From TrEMBL:
The lineage of its organism: Eukaryota, Fungi, Dikarya, Ascomycota, Pezizomycotina. This is Phosphatidate cytidylyltransferase, mitochondrial. Keywords: Lipid biosynthesis, Lipid metabolism, Magnesium, Membrane, Mitochondrion, Mitochondrion inner membrane, Nucleotidyltransferase, Phospholipid biosynthesis, Phospholipid metabolism, Transferase. Its cofactor is Mg(2+). It comes from Microthyrium microscopicum. Coiled coil: none annotated. It is found in: Mitochondrion inner membrane. GO terms for molecular function: phosphatidate cytidylyltransferase activity. GO terms for cellular component: mitochondrial inner membrane. The keyword Membrane applies. Pathway: Lipid metabolism; Phospholipid metabolism; CDP-diacylglycerol biosynthesis; CDP-diacylglycerol from sn-glycerol 3-phosphate: step 3/3. It comes from the Eukaryota. Its EC number is 2.7.7.41. One of its GO terms (biological process) is cardiolipin biosynthetic process.
Length: 522
């Protein structure tokens, strides 16, 4: 060990880890070892995975083209409607979708061509500056450990320029960021947040610890097995490494197992990552099963927001409800670690992106529609000044179907809220739960609302409160435990630094608001 200190660290890690990395990547690509074979669902092959890695850029390029085409088609169709102010967007998106794609999703798919529709999920791909996007992608290629799915998110990627307070420069100390990043972040440098989806947690951390030991806290000395157990068994299943410099840019990246990500997106067991994907993100590497799960996540967010709204509302109100879901019960909001106006700023500054995410899904639901003459304009989808009016049918049968189609783990919490409220006996409640299961010995069942769902939906004000309470119960514990876990994964110094800067930011925002209020009085 003493000799190691006299060796240049960069050279030492390069020499000592080269054989391990080489053998690991051979195992990953060749598929001759059991570890590799576990990566694929039935019917897939090493060649399929190789092709998937090579064609990440091509897949997103096709997504962007299709999204642009769908957007144009949607605008054209809206312009052609003259007899009514109601509008169902992206009709072409819905015409070829199988009717039961939500009830029995195929999680064994390995290619994008196996998705329910050739343009399925293209609404998830946001368009950003090409040079900035390339800078983000270049950061991914600095990691030797294989990343199957990745997205960048937050104020470092999408503008929240309506922030009501200053951003402390210490939060974003880019040492020497590429020009594309400094140009994109016109309001001042901001940390760029990433989520990496990986197939095998321990394998990934083993490779990454060898390449970047400085990214990890003291846990790296205990080995990748301990690191992976901390990731998978504590909090929401995400392992964050903050204050990391890649290509001269300060980033924070979280690592999550793909199974954990898909489960949260489809069942809402924690809403930790599902909530982040309710808002616009930049997907840098895509995966067909994650795209399928995220489409379920988005349409679930739309239904949940509708249950919290009345018969008439605006787009801005709808998207604000959706964006607020992941912040209900978040300790950062409770302890003023975030701007209290953050949700409003996110929506108002990204309104066209929210339209891209949700307008195709509005066209899928039979009980909601646009009711605004401005939707006839060809350019309304891209007009941030347009806040179109909307209406939903409050019929308990249709709203009961929405309750029944909520994600399974979240729906169970909502049912428990009403069991306590209506004091339903245990045996009766167990019988109702058995009837509402998504599948039985015969397979998946068509999810249509029963009497219990309709009774819930019939409480226009009561269901709103129950949904909010269920969201808080879903979000609170994973968010708290994930925050506590951050002290172990980031290390005490970086953990306290992160908390301190969040508190400092919140305090600066509160002082700025008080100053503005005082100025108005004078």
């Amino acid at each position: 060990m003493a000799a190691v200190r006299f060796v240049n660290p960069r050279v030492f890690y390069s020499v000592t880890s080269s054989h391990t990395i080489l053998l690991s990547h051979i195992a990953w690509y060749r598929g001759s070892q059991p570890l590799f074979r576990r990566t694929f669902a039935s019917g897939s092959s090493p060649e399929d995975f190789k092709e998937k890695r090579i064609t990440h850029d091509e897949a997103e390029l096709e997504s962007q083209k299709a999204a642009s085409k769908a957007s144009t088609a949607s605008s054209s169709s809206s312009a052609s409607i003259q007899s009514s102010t109601s509008f169902k967007s992206s009709e072409s998106f819905n015409q070829s979708l199988p009717s039961g794609w939500e009830d029995d999703p195929d999680w064994s798919i390995t290619k994008f061509t196996q998705l329910p529709h050739k343009e399925f999920g293209y609404n998830q791909h946001m368009k950003i500056n090409e040079e900035f996007k390339e800078s983000l992608r270049q950061m991914l290629w600095q990691f030797r450990a294989p990343i199957r799915y990745a997205f960048a998110y937050g104020s470092g990627v999408f503008s929240q320029s309506g922030s009501s307070g200053p951003t402390p420069s210490s939060l974003t100390p880019h040492p020497h960021a590429p020009e594309a990043i400094t140009k994109w972040q016109t309001g001042g440098g901001k940390v760029i947040d990433f989520i990496f989806g990986v197939s095998h947690t321990q394998h990934w951390h083993s490779l990454n610890i060898q390449q970047y030991p400085e990214h990890y806290s003291f846990l790296r000395h205990m080995g990748s097995g301990v690191v992976s157990r901390v990731q998978d068994n504590w909090g929401a299943g995400v392992y964050f490494n903050p204050y990391i410099t890649i290509n001269g840019t300060m980033i924070k990246y979280g690592v999550v197992n793909l199974d954990t990500l898909r489960r949260d997106l489809s069942t809402w067991d924690t809403l930790y990552l599902a909530g982040r994907l309710h808002k616009p993100v930049k997907i840098l590497r895509d995966d067909p099963t994650v795209r399928l799960a995220n489409q379920l996540n988005l349409i679930s967010a739309l239904r949940t927001a509708l249950l919290m709204l009345g018969p008439r509302f605006t787009e801005l109100e709808l998207y604000t409800k959706i964006a607020s879901i992941s912040y209900m019960g978040d300790p950062r909001m409770e302890f003023r670690g975030e701007d209290p106006n953050k949700i409003r700023n996110i929506v108002t500054n990204q309104l066209p992106n929210f339209r891209q995410l949700y307008s195709p899904l509005v066209g899928e639901l039979p009980n909601v529609e646009y009711k605004d003459v401005r939707c006839k304009s060809r350019d309304w989808l891209h007009d941030p000044r347009c806040d179109c009016g909307m209406e939903q049918d409050m019929d308990p049968i249709k709203r009961g179907n929405m309750v029944r189609r909520l994600p399974a783990a979240f729906r169970a919490k909502l049912y428990m809220e009403y069991r306590k409220k209506w004091q339903i006996p245990g045996a009766d409640f167990a019988r109702m739960m058995e009837e509402s299961r998504d599948e039985d010995e015969k397979g998946f069942k068509k999810r249509e609302g029963g009497d219990f769902d309709r009774r819930i939906a019939g409480e226009e004000e009561g269901v709103k409160d129950a949904v909010i309470s269920s969201i808080q119960h879903t979000v609170k514990w994973p968010s708290w435990s994930q925050s506590i876990k951050g002290f172990a994964t980031a290390g005490w110094s970086r953990g306290w630094k992160y908390v301190g800067e969040k508190r400092k930011k919140g305090k600066a925002i509160a002082q700025e608001k008080a100053k503005q209020a005082k100025g108005k009085k004078n």
